[in-house]
Amino acid sequence: MKINPKDISIIEKLRTGNRHAFEMLYKEHFNMVYYFVLKNNGNKEDAKDIFQETIIILFEKTKHKDFSLSCTVKTFIYSIARNLWLKKLRNKSKQVHIADFEQYIKVDINEHFEEKEEDDDDEKINLIMEKVKLLGEKCKALLTGFYFYKKSMQLLATELDYTNAANAKNQKYKCLKQLQKLVLENE
Q1: pTM attached to this predicted model
Q2: pLDDT single digits (tens) 70-124
Q3: 3-state SS record for the chain
């Protein structure tokens, strides 16, 4: 792939720590990261953090002598920012949304564990996530999309090729029943 001379110039400026290069990256690419984070349950502060982490990663990469772009700077920034944000969402989801699954599968998972203050939540998360992995691909995508990423039924219906939101909602109910059965098998 032929790399744009402007991208090569930016990389060279980053290698030397040129402040103008950082400003140019911000002006040209922050909005892309901002809209991605915003569209995926984040806010402007989250986007600023993710963008900063992304630029640090890019800067660190440019310090390696063998680093060369295999894509445009825009693509590089987008993919790093996307991976950072999705990782942050996954980690946040594991901690915050465990109650959603407990509520909807109508199982008190606490009964399955000894009373351990700190390890309890991790064990609950691990149990549910283990069981989610056993579901079919569409069920996994539907449940994680709805409960972890807070996507609407209409969006999930479109993404997962259901005829409409009501059909996706019915399928979500069936998937929750499957998950409930898998969790109850652990008793």
Answers
A1: 0.51
A2: 788 888 899 899 999 888 887 765 544 444 555 555 444 344 434 444 455 566 6
A3: CCCCHHHHHHHHHHHCCCHHHHHHHHHHHHHHHHHHHHHCCCCHHHHHHHHHHHHHHHHHHHCCCCCCCCCCHHHHHHHHHHHHHHHHHHHHHHHHCHHHHHHHHCCCHHHHCCCCCCHHHHHHHHHHHHHHHCCCHHHHHHHHHHHHCCCCHHHHHHHCCCCCHHHHHHHHHHHHHHHHHHHHCCC
Q: Which residue has the tokens 């019915």?
A: 170
Q: Which amino acid is at 3?
A: I
Q: Please name the amino acid found at residue 26.
A: Y
Assigned token pair, 155: 């969006």
* Tokens, residue 114: 């000894």
